[in-house]
Amino acid sequence: MFRYILLRLGYFVLTFFVVSLILFALSRLAPGDPVDKYMSVDEPDDRYESYADFMSRRQAIANQYHLDKPPFYISIVPYRLSKDMYQLSGRQMRKWYKQLVYSSNRPSVVWQYIDNLGQLQSYLNTPEGAKYINLKNELAKVKYSSDLRTINAFASLLQIVDFEDQSEITSLKQNLLSHTSSLFEGHTDGLELSMFIPKIFLHGTNNQYHFWIKNFIKGNFGLSDFDRRPVKTRIWDALFWTLLINFISIFFAYLISIPLGVYSADKVNGKLDRAVSLMSMMLYALPSFWVATLFITFLTSYEWLHWFPSGGLGRGEGQTSFGRLLDLGYHLVLPIFCVTYIALAFIIRQVRSTLKETLEKDFIKTAEAKGLPHKKVLWRHGFRNSLLPLITLFANILPATIAGSVVVEIIFSIPGMGRLAFDGILQQDWNLVFTIMMLATLLTLLGNLLADLLYLRADPRISLTTETTADA
Amino acid sequence: MKSHSSKLCVYFIGILVTVTILADFIANDKPIYCQVMGQTYYPILNDYGVALGLCDRQHPRLGTDWHDLTYERSLWPIIPFSGSNLDLENAYKGPFTAAKKNDRYTHLLGTGILGKDVAAGMIEGTRVAFVVGIFSMLLALFIGLLVGSIAGYFGDNYFHLSLLSILFTLLGLALGSFYTHLLYQLWGSSDAKLFTTFFTLVGSIIVGTVCCAIFIIIGLLLDRLFSIPRTRAIPIDIILMRIVEIVNSLPALLVLMVLAGMFEVRSVWIVIFIIAFIKWTSIAKFVRAELLQIRSMDYIRAAKSSGSSEWNILWNHALPNALTPVYITVAFGIAGAILLESTISFLGIGISQEVMSWGKMLAQARQKPSAWWLAVFPGLMIFLCVVAINIIGDKLRFAYRH
Question: Which of A371, B33, B176, B321 is deepest in the core (most CB within 10 A)?
């Protein structure tokens, strides 16, 4: 038994690790460049005195969010790439660097080329540089481009631009010209073989994933990309509403489904049983967003019946605390109804099948045979012995209803987790979104773990391979 | 469940599948056949031809709406609109009340935002729902069968490899992922078109997989060449079931919302792939459970003792017998996929803006509560469709068990 618990915990940790890897990889694929986002890119270079200033600011931000580090403990890259790449902050920069390295013949020059372009750009943004408007336009095209023709067009324009007597910028121009010409020296259209030879880098713990997961485990979720509030407080605020709605709904769902489930299991294929199974199937197929929309249309609008508010939590200004509570309850009637029926459809089947299984056992027959009243057998012996599976069911229901309440929260504008995640997706606030994903997954995994351990408590014979042996 | 109700459901789903196939001929903003100024046109068929690159577009007056023409003779679809057709003068009009210009073109079930025809939207929505449901479950079936059958048939003790093969497999996995990543970067361009993004991804994954497969085959060949004994049992069941648990522990709706929101292009196919990724686990679990039972049956032992190879037994003897219950899971899965698709369409994520779907029409109802037809009809379709599929699934399950 101890060995089982240890193994189960080991599986939990392993699964969580892999899930975190998947979500981390996804979060790095999300559109938008975090560094750029933090610097509010639209007028990037104008606000900084010099190129060095701008770059140091970028670097500082990247460093703060660990974006100037390699993504993982280990990376397999084409033989051509050097570790320099990881100093580049920002995804777009890195991508540009890689594309240049792949398409040019001289990887060593790429770094200087990018740096010089940046310097030129910051010069063109100064008042003196502002008159070279053509060059500025062309530079905007060539930035983040690895296309040979674009780069050549830029070089030929740069060639004819006369920077008068500013020696510094003229030397920069000469450098840049030599870089551009050497970038594609002897360029052939075919790909170099050296690109397809892999090389392994080991980065140690100084990588993005390490900091990301460390911060997550510490409970330090960082700032929201959108409004710069701590993700933790945003989630904490939202979690309250989601849990409130879900706990109330699950409570009601249990309250309704236990008597219905018990009595329908008592007479299988009886009238009640048939009605209940038909109802549960209907509820199962009823999309919550449709029910919510119907409520919104017919019960909250002035065109039909304005019985309920159409959303929100109610402000309750100038009322006593009891009045505020009442107002809140009034606002929550429809959402709770919607979540309740989702949970109900799920629970009622489970109650019925669990009870049915218990009622077929020998001790029920014994109890009946010794002449106990039927009701007593049903509740004392039948229901009591199926309590544990029903309680462990809770561990599975909670994640399911939270997922179900996502849509309900969005429709009734309740500031819960679902609403938060939805807004996060629309606002491309990936830090928030992936933190919510991690938490939701963690909750599901913990639920599974808890359910398994509770089952173990109920039936100590259980083992990790029970399923296998029982079936075979 | 009485048998006639399930028969009714089969008819209903049959009709919807027919609508899916013939949607263009049921609701379209152009006639099926018409005669204008002595010339005969088949505009809908012509559209198909243009899409396939077989012929040029034929139109009596290019740039004019087909509704505005005067015809000598014409045969229109039952609903003379397409789902994204605008009729700006008739926005949010109730059923039967609104007509475009003359009585010939009536909005049977009313209109929604910008005068989009509800009936046409329902037809188009049927197509979206069933395409998503069927194709995503086909894909999920493929993945689920592969994973589930390997996990169930070989279990933890029956899949053996030599150390050499294990090394080659790991090497193949590493190199395969490397080339997938590299090719994705090389082929990928910055412009986010569906064609480029999607096919780059699929193409690079295929190349990576082939690379991985080559290494595995080399490993197996080397084993055979030097007759290295396969001594190490791979706990393949545990490994695959862990993967299933991982995918299951991800919150499905959130994953769908986030992944669909992450793509800069929108398409039905992206939604299909994501739903398949979410749904294959239940099929895999089912196949595994079936095969665990089948593995110990006599006819498998007979096949083994007559010298069939493991893979031969798996594909030709074990798997065909496990399929029936799998089809039931697929039936329920289609209903689930339709629900998922309409949910994210309702939220405004996922499929492209031009295509109408049931979920999107429901979303319009939220903006205009007085337009009850927008709230009732599309939702009813989703509900009926899901109920019908579930009843059929229940019936199949009942028939299988008894």
Answer: B176
